[in-house]
Amino acid sequence: MIRVLKNLNVEVRSLEQPLDMSIPDNKLMLAFYLMTPEIENDKVSVRTKEGLYKAAKSGAFTSKAPFGYVNTRNEEDMSTLAYCPEKYQLVQEALELFAGGNYSADEVRKKIFGTGKSAKISKQTFLNILRNPTYAGKIVVPAFGKDRSYLVDGVHPPIISMHTFIRNTEILNRNKKILISKEREEFPLRGSLKCPYCEKPLTASASRSRNQSLHHYYHCQKGCGYRQRASLVNQVFEDYLDSFELTNEMYDLYNEVFKDFISTMNSGKKLELSNIEKEMEKITARKEKIENEYMDDKISADKYNNLLDRCENEMLRLQLRKESLTTDTKESLENLRSALLVHKTVTYLYKNADVRGKKEIIGSIFKDFLVFEKGEYRTTQLSILASLIFNDIKGFRGDEKKKGDISVALSSLAP
Questions:
Q1: CB 183 within 8 A of CB 355
Q2: How many domains does the structure of the chain reveal?
Q3: Helical axes 301-325 vs 248-295, angle rounded to 10°
Q4: Which domain holds residue 118?
Q5: What is the pLDDT of residue 377?
Q6: What is d(CA 141, CA 181) in angstroms, rounded to the nearest whole number?
Q7: C-beta of residue 142 within 8 angstroms of C-beta of residue 149
Q8: 8-state DSSP, 116
Q9: Residue 134: which pLDDT band, with cuts at 50, 70 and 90?
Q10: Is residue 103 part of a domain?
Q11: Residue 130 included in any domain
């Protein structure tokens, strides 16, 4: 986007971190500025998931209340559910009626909730209700880390018994083949490819020939006829992946750049932290003065509270800024170095990974769908780090790099 604006003769400036984009070195600093909050957002996401996982383990319900319940909090201030007076009895009647086995799901829905536009819930919503263990007083603890998803007793009141819930599940699954989703080794790129004709995501499947041998294909789902043999698509991708491996010189270059940049950032942080400490000391002294004046009846209670609130707000702002500055940047540097290390042997890692590992590697490099056309892969949008490494170093040549002179190496980087 910065490049687009530049082509329109618009210069992008930052008030907090001014960078002269005419200097090639500053492109790495810009990328680091952009990448740091993304890493922090990922940390927040992990902490949020961990919090939801712990809440679910304790029996709390943290999502939107299902039909028949309302969101509430109990005496321990836990997020949970309570009966919705005008709805929960309808749900109870419907679930117990279906458990009798005399009516289909849609017949029960129409009988209890009505038909046409006046129906309170849709057909799919009712099927979701039948399969939801929340109505039996259970909470689904989501998969987290190495732990699989499982059920625990919720702190909310059940609408039906566990026996009724199991009975309903059995009826729904009766005479129905249960399909278990499984990642297949033949299709590591499924979910990462799109059709070059209609630009819809490709699926994959195997077909049996006349001699009963299996042939595996990636193909379009929309009937446009696009189909490619999976073995060819997979092999060409492994060859394509070779172009995303770092040479030793490139790896050492980026390591030094990030290390120097972290050092520069830390120097600037020390100065700003020192200024913040001085400001906090001034506010503390100001608060003491305000309190003394109030005790000596020199100011009214309203003015005292007003001035104190202003001091507290300013102190909070400084504390938040201090906490932000004192966040350890070492972890960010290690994350970047780990990513660079992966790119030194990315093809080897990909070939020896299982399907899930292959998909993670693909997702870490490519931000958008891949397109395979005419025997090769079309250039696609890369992730932030991959874009930084591979889009901005097209002009790099190993013999241009001089030992101990990072600036000379950086000046050889193409835009």
A1: yes
A2: 1
A3: 160
A4: 58-173
A5: 92
A6: 20
A7: yes
A8: G
A9: very high
A10: yes
A11: yes
The arithmetic mean of pLDDT across residues 112-132, rounded, is 81
What single-letter amino acid sits at 118?
A: S
Q: What is the maximum alpha-carbon separation in the chain?
A: 101
The alpha-carbon radius of gyration of the chain (Å, integer) is 30
Query: Is residue 84 within 8 Å of residue 68, measured between CB atoms?
Result: yes
| pLDDT (0 to 100) of residue 216 | 92
Q: What is the pLDDT of residues 337-367, one digit of tens each?
A: 666 677 778 888 899 988 888 988 888 788 7
Sign of CA dihedral 46, 337, 393, 266: positive
d(CA 305, CA 307): 6
pLDDT tier, 169 (very low <50, low <70, confident <90, very high otherwise): confident
Q: Which helix (H) or strand (E) holds 169?
A: helix 162-173
Residue 140: strand pairing partners: 151
Residue 290 placed within a domain: no
What is the rounded distance in angstroms from the CA atom of residue 97 to the CA atom of residue 294? 71
pLDDT band at 402 (very low <50, low <70, confident <90, very high): very low
Question: In terms of pTM, does the model score above 0.70?
Answer: no
Length of the chain: 415
For position 163, which CATH number holds? 3.90.1750.20
How far, in whole angstroms, is CA 177 from its chain's centroid? 33
Q: Distances from the Cα of 104 to the Cαs of 46, 96, 295, in angstroms? A: 42, 12, 77
Q: In angstroms, rounded to a whole number, what is the distance separating the alpha carbons of residues 330 and 314? A: 29
Smallest CA-to-CA distance from 128 within 188, 193, 202, 64 is with: 64
Across the range 394-409, mean pLDDT stands at 36
Chain centroid to CA 331 = 19
Asked if the structure places residue 268 within a domain, the reply is no
Mean pLDDT of the chain: 80
Which pLDDT value is given to residue 329?
A: 53
